[in-house]
Design brief:
The chain has a single domain, classed as Thrombin, subunit H. It contains two helices and six strands, in the order H-E-E-E-E-E-E-H. Strands 1-2-3-6-5-4 form a six-stranded antiparallel beta barrel. The longest helix is centred in the C-terminal third of the chain and has 12 residues. It is globular, with a radius of gyration of 13 Å.
């Protein structure tokens, strides 16, 4: 990622470090996904669930919680999600688990 794109980001991103299994729901479609990176403002996920830019989705992360968001971009089976609200508590918990 270029420095220019990194400067433009509002939230620090962190690689999860392990493939975090989660579920994603977009419209009538629901299925598994893998969270690659996450911040309090969004996430990058891999999934076979069909979704398009602007779709409203819900990301379910096991017993940790769920968060609603919008698909910001799509690149094949990878989605960039923008969360509807700041989810600092969820990301703090995920970072703690990832470094444990």
């Amino acid at each position: 990622m270029s420095q220019q794109n990194e400067v433009a980001r509002r939230h620090l991103r962190s690689e999860v470090g392990v493939d975090l299994e989660a579920r994603i729901k977009s419209g009538d479609h629901e299925g598994r996904c893998t969270v690659d990176n996450i911040s309090s403002g969004g996430a990058r996920v891999n999934t076979r669930i069909p979704a398009a830019r602007g779709d409203v989705v819900t990301l379910h992360i096991g017993s940790i919680g769920s968060v609603d968001g919008t698909v910001a971009w799509v690149n094949r089976s990878t989605l960039g999600l923008k969360f509807a609200k700041d989810v600092t508590a969820i990301t703090d918990l995920l970072f703690a688990v990832a470094i444990y």
